Amino acid sequence: MIRVILTDIEGTTSSISFVHEVLFPYSAEHLEVFVREGHEDNLDIREQLDAVAATSGVSVKDIDGLIAVLQRWIREDRKETALKALQGMLWEQGYERGDFRGHVYDDAARYLKLWSERGLRLYVYSSGSVKAQKLIFGFSEAGDLTPCFSGYFDTRMGAKREPDSYHNIVAELGVAPETVLFLSDVEAELEAAEAAGLRTAWLVRDGSHPESERKVMRTFEDVDTLLRNHFPL
Known about the structure:
Blueprint: E1 4-7, H1 16-38, H2 43-56, H3 63-76, H4 81-97, H5 106-118, E2 121-125, H6 130-138, E3 149-153, H7 163-173, E4 180-184, H8 187-195, E5 199-203, E6 216-217, H9 220-230
Parallel strand pairs: 1-2, 1-4, 2-3, 4-5, 5-6
Helix pairs in contact: 1-3, 1-4, 2-4, 4-6, 7-8
């Protein structure tokens, strides 16, 4: 029986366009000022810049060089933990100022609340930082959805296309892998989760039906039907 639902964000609970047309441009526009103003006094920013320097080989004293690396990583959509952490700090600023609200599909918000009320434990696993995850749900267009969730995982657990990442998550949760249902729009992530013993559901929100033998779901209502028919509570 399914006891835990682990969900991706981008393309699953939330639109890809919100991330790429709102969040990424915001971080690209405000990153330089944010880093320059905070790198001397803000320990969290300094810690992430140290990590950028270690990964890129650019001197930690070369602020111009570190900013250039970060801007390149944003353009490349690199899954670097330090970049994601800095973006999360920037997006917190944007959410708190009311510059934007987090996009969550209406059906996703409805079923996240419903599943939580039913007693399912809900977790997030996204390449965005835990801070960014909490922000998109905490400042969502549907209101504060963070009470629905029991916890959050990011790339510190490992890459989303690697089975070991899901082994790490299941070990931290302390549950049998077959009691976890992972939701994602990326088939390679589902394959990695399945290799670790998790159940999966493939959500394809937009576009034509992909050519695959895997069952495709369009909404969280479809996932709920799967739960009721195949994994009764």
